[in-house]
Specification:
mainly alpha, two-stranded antiparallel sheet, 7 helices
């Protein structure tokens, strides 16, 4: 099933964002495989990227993005190589393609534990073909369809009906 981001205006609301963040970071951390019920590590990293792109196009979501950035940073620092790779290559490289999202992760450039990942991801983000950069502000991106697992879909449905 598909969830169309624009048809879910509450995706930027505090309670919904907290649930989405908890679910996606849990999927990245746990790395559950071979199930359609729960997103895998890289699938969740991609969903996290899509969610960030959605939020950056909405007013009043800076605090949500800041909290999510902090949680992602903490997960990266607390995790082993598999989780760090998923965050760097499945999320950070792609989120840094959008210039408006870079400030949420600039602190990585000043932390010796994060500098190498920041440098590699920023290099990727800056050299992505221009056609893909900052597409979150276009009507096409706001209509982007995100694949999600049945479990994630249920989390969203529950959150949006609260």
């Amino acid at each position: 099933m598909k969830v169309i981001i624009e048809s879910s205006p509450n995706w930027g609301g505090e309670p919904t964002c907290a649930l989405i963040q908890k679910y996606l970071l849990g999927c990245i951390r746990d790395g559950v495989a071979d199930t359609e019920e729960i997103q895998g590590r890289y699938e969740a990293a991609e969903s996290l990227h899509v969610w960030f792109r959605h939020l950056v196009g909405m007013e009043g979501t800076s605090a949500v993005l800041s909290r999510a950035s902090s949680a992602i940073t903490n997960l990266y620092l607390e995790s082993g190589e598999e989780v760090r790779d998923a965050i760097e290559t499945g999320f950070l490289e792609h989120v840094l393609e959008t210039a408006a999202l870079r400030p949420y992760f600039e602190h990585w450039a000043f932390d010796p534990r994060l500098q190498l990942a920041w440098s590699r991801a920023l290099e990727w983000g800056k050299h992505t073909p221009i056609i893909w950069q900052d597409f979150s502000t276009t009507p096409t991106e706001r209509q982007r369809v995100m694949d999600c697992s049945p479990h994630f879909r249920q989390v969203l449905v529950n959150a949006l009906t609260v």
